[in-house]
Amino acid sequence: MSTITTTPQQPAASSPIKRLISGHPLIAFFVIAFAGEWIVTLPLVLAQNGLGLFPYTIPEIGLVPLAYWFSVLASIAGPTLASIVVTAIISGKGGMRQLLRRYVLWRVGVRWYLLVIAGVPLIQLAFASIFSGGAPLVAFLQHWPLFFTVYLPNILIISVAIQIWEEGGWSGFAVPALQQRFGAWRAWCSVHCGLCFTCLSSLFRGSFSRVKSGSARWSCIWGS
Prior knowledge:
Elements: H1 16-23, H2 25-46, H3 66-101, H4 110-131, H5 135-142, H6 145-182, H7 184-207, H8 214-219
Helix pairs in contact: 1-2, 2-3, 2-6, 2-7, 3-6, 4-5, 6-7
C-alpha cells in the first residue's frame, strides 16, 4: 500500500507555524481535525434543537436531516482540511497528488463493496433475531422494500457527502502516517481511540434528528 511520507520534502518552512507542523505532523493533523469538527458542530450542539443551551434554533433545510448538513461541513473542516494542510506543508505538491488520488482509488472489485453494503445489515439482522426471538426477521420480511428505499439511499448519501471527506483524512493521511511509525495494529488503535472524541460531536449532531434519520427509519426493520 502506498503511503504519504511524513518526511519534509522541501527546505525548512519559514513561519513558526509551518515549522511546528513539519516537526509534529501527526499531532498537527489531530489538533486541526478535532478543532475543525467541533468548531462547525458547536452551533448545532448548543442550539435549541441540540442541547438547548443557547436561545436560538437552526432551521431544517429541505427533507435531509439537519445533522447530515453539519456532518458534511464538519468532515470537510475537520479531517479533510487537516490532511490537506499538513500534507501540503510536509510533502508539497507530490504529497498532495498522492493524497488526492486516494479519494478516487478503488482497491477491490465492485462485488466486494456490494457484499459489505448488504452483508453488514444482514449480520445485524441475524444477531438481532437471535437475541430478540425472531421478531427482527419477521419485521424485515414485512418491510423489506425499506432496504432499497431507505437504507441504500442513506448509505449512498452518507458515503458521497460525508465518508469520502472524512476517510480521505483519516484513512488517507492519519493511518498511513501512523503505520510508518507504529505498525498496523497500533495505528488502527490510535485512530479509533482518537475518533471517540469526534464521535462525541457526531452523537450531538445526530441525537435530536434521529427520528428523521435513515438509521432510525431502518431500525423499524429490526422491529425496534
